[in-house]
Structure formats: structure tokens, C-alpha cells
Predict the structure.
Amino acid sequence: MRYLTVDFGSTYTKLAAIDATEARVIGVASAFTTIATDVMVGFHAALNLLREHIGAFDYDELLCCSSAGGGLKMVALGLVPELTSKAAKMAAESAGAKVVRTYAYEISATEQAEIAAINPDIVLLCGGTDGGNKDVIVKNAALICKTPGDFSIIAAGNKSASRELEEIFKHSGKDCVITNNVMPAFGRLDTEPARNAIRDIFIERIIDAKGLAAVQRMTKHEIMPTPFAVLKGCELLSLGTDKTSGIGDFLAVDLGGATTDVYSMAKGAPSLSNVLVKGLPEPYAKRTVEGDLGMRYSAAFLLEEAGARNIADACGIAEDEIVAWVRKCVADPGTLAPQNSRERALDETLAGCAIEIAVGRHCGVLEQIYTPLGETYTLTGKDLSETPRVIGIGGVIQNSASPAKILRHAVFTVKNTGRMFPKAPAFLLDKRYIFSAMGLVGMIDPELALAIMKQEMHPLTEDEDGIEKPETVR
Amino acid sequence: MSRGGGMSTKTIVTGVIGADVHAVGNKILAFALEEAGFTVVNLGVMVSQEEFIAAAVETAADAIVVSSLYGHGEIDCQGMRAKCDEAGLKDIPLLVGGNIVVGKQEFGDVETRFKAMGFTRAYPPGTTVETAIADLDALLGA
């Protein structure tokens, strides 16, 4: 059995050829994504490249995922920011979406206009526990239906509002689905039905809208959102299968041109005693995505967030040179920094900043509280301080001569006190960008995908950055 | 027995406010309220005003029952009514009980101070749960 996996990215179409009998990746190749014209052109270009590398190759199964055309763009609405708004965001991100904005309470006219300007693929509408508040979701549903844009609406809020919602949706002229509440009872999450609804819409409508209908006709397997496939791959690598154990807890960082995705596979329970856990329950397999942190399309936001001054201090390059480079990257996302150049050093510094900020947002927060009974702590989110591994995925990390140096930014420093970063992790590199491919293969043959992922994760050592190291994790 | 009759039961948000970690009374109170037919959202110990309010907004609660056992309730409860008003929980009944002030004080004065803070009811130590349930029934018209 031979598989061909295809990942249609915003910039590159990435192919991997897999031999199931030998349980190995035969080869990988990539070419520019040609979504604006015909996506098949980029696909065939990559396939020809692949055949140049590995010789004649025919496949039995074709498996595809896509984040082309800006990925799966969503906005999430809830009632209280730290409750249903957060739950809505978590549900969307775990389904592989990029949540551009999250809103709470009844949206304002400005916010409504902002949603129209974002032009999302899907709007996820939540709010109220079952039997709880229904005014806000009903009002927001009416406002969202009147918001211009060709988007689908998923309502996953208070079940008691479903009749009103049905009535509003019936005459809206938009594609609307009502599913189970993401937070049926206070503090209890049920994100699976919303996730499934998102995936169904992705398959039914968005594949077509993003010009991937021709691809879908070539395979009997459904095209998945890429981050969803990566999350599945991460889960498999961490937990293993019924027969084979996984590698256990880890944090993975995927640094792309437009976004930085962070995946944590860990319960995230407090590592210290005397800690009270606050906030919503956290899923074992968690994904967060930062749409404002990327190496190309969103580099300007990254620069703003990290501060040109800090970057200048870190890499010893003048501030105006940094600003000029970022401007160039945004204007032409195809810009590549040559090996051993100043630009490369700058890119790697930016990558480190993106990782630090993204991992900081992903990790839980430990707060110190002084009480009449002494000092105590609360934890909101996941405590990842004991997480033993950090895996690097994605272009800059992959192409760097010293990937461990970039990944070190995912580790706790005094500057980030209170953020539960991993303290002393080992670093691994997904050298050939295999996670999304293995997420896809894993849905058919998990044993095969697990075996290949274990081969493909290359340990990095601090001093030599181990990129050429042949040993693998078993 | 179901409060409020028919399909809709009354929802009560309860918890122990501030840095207070007295968990036992909280569990007993939540149990008793549930037994009495209320839908109870129990936030447990060390609950901030904001958490009470967020839970009440999301669950469309009918009343908030605040416990405080460690003597600092008077500080912890200040400004809670104003925050409820701000969050749109207009006129929501706020009940408080336990050891809500420092030391032994004349409870009439204590009650006056808590009512001035916007609390609907304030209970002295030793109040039975039945008293609070009877008051909730009266306040919520159950």
C-alpha cells in the first residue's frame, strides 16, 4: 500500500509519499500553491518534483488537507468573555480554524461592521448554559443574520433558545446549523458537536469555495483542515494506539507565514501544591492559533508585539533595518532569507519572539494570592512546566541551521514568571513537516502513522543543534 | 420537589467568597439547596465577585448565595451590588451568611451594614439552611 498525502498550504503545496509495507516516508516535495488560478497546477508541479527525487511513484490512496486561501477563517461569539466566549474559541481552534476575533455579550454596531470586514467562512454563535441566558444569543443571531457576507452560521449555545434561533435562521438566507451547547452546564464543556459541525461545513461548502472541488473528486477521503490533521497527528504521537504506546506529553509549535499554532498534549494539572485551579476545564489535546504572529503575512503585527527595540537588542541589527526587512516580508510573502545572511539571523530572532509570545498565550497563568491564612496560588489554564518535550514544526524552524536556538524560546525564563512554560524540555524537530500527513494517514492506519512519526522526530541537542544527528526517538 | 413549578426551576449561584477555603459548609449548603429543588451552580471555594457574576450572567441565575466563614466577608463583599448592576443583573437577590465579620459583633449592626452594601439578606452564624430556603422561596416567588 502506498499513500500520497497533500497539504495545500497558503504558500506551499506539500506532498509526502509513504510506503506502508516498509513503514517509511519515501520522499517529500513542495511547490507554490496555485489557488488563484488552478490548484492542480501547483499539485502537479510538486508531484513532478517528487518523482524527480524518488523516481516513478504511483499511489493507492490520496489523502489531502488544506489551509489554502487563508485557512478556515472564523469568528466566535459568546456571552461572558471567560466562559462561553472562551469555550467557543476553544471549540473552533480544536476544529482547525483560525479564530480571527472573539466577541462577548451583545455585539455593537462597530463589532458587527468588523465581522463583515473580516469576512469569515464560519461564525460560531454561543452563549448561555442550557436553561441559562438566552437573550444575548438570540439578539446576536439576529444581528449576525443581517451582517453582510457569505458565511455559514453555527449556533452552539443555550438549547432553550433553539426555537427562536430556528425562526431567525429560517428567513436569513444564510447557511445555518444548530447544534449542542459548547457549555451545557456551568464549567462543563462539550465541544465535540460544534467541532463536527465546523468540519461538516468545511467539507460541504468551504472545499468548493476555496477551489478544491477538483481535488476532492480525485479522492474518496474527505479533505481535512490542515490544523485539524496536525492536531490528530499530535494526539496519536502522544497517546499511541491500543497496541503501541505514544511518546507521552509534549508541546508542539508550528510557525508559519501567517499564523503561529501551538499544540499541547498534556493534562496540565498543577505541578505545585497549594494551587487552586480556576477557569474552564482544559482539553488534553489543545490547540491555540495566533493570527497576529507569523513570519510573513502577519510579520508587521509580530514586530509590533515583540518591539523593534527588543529584537534589535537580541540580534544586534539596527532597528530601521529590522523594520525594512519586515516591510519587505509583508509586501512579498515569498521573500526568502539566504543561508548565513543577516536577514536569516533576523528571521530567526523574529521566529523566537513569535514562539515566546504564542507559547506564553497558550500556557496557563499562575497567580499568587495573599490571604489571611498565608500565601496561596491559583492556576488558570494548563501548567506545562513539567512537559518533557518541545517539538518544532514549520518552515523557519525546519530550515534553520540552529533550530534548538529558536525552540529555546518556548522555555520558561524569569521574564515570564507566572506563565507555566515548560521548564526543562528536550527539543525535537519535525524535519520533513510530517505531522499533517501523519494525521491524515493515522485516520486510516494509526499504527503506520505512529511508527513513521517516531522515526521522523529528530532530537536536537543544545550544543550542536543536532540537525544532522541520525538517531531517532523509539 | 421542583421550585418554580413546571419545567423551569430556579437557579442559584453559590460559593465561598474571597480567599476563604472553608469547603465543608459550602458542600452542605449546595446539597441542601439542590435537595430543596433548586438548580445549583456551586462555584466552590475562593470565588471572586467577578466569578459569581459571570456564572450568574451565563446561567441566568435567579439569586446569588454568598458564604464567608473566615471573618473577612465584609471586605470581600464590598462593591458586589454595583458590579451586579453593571453586569445587567439588576435587582438579583444577594444573600450572604456564615461568619461574615471579624469577632463577635451585634448582628443588627452587621445586618444594617450589609444591607447598605446592597445585600438582600445577611445571616448570623448558626442560621439554619431552612431559613435561607424559606427566604429564597419568598424572594423568588417559588
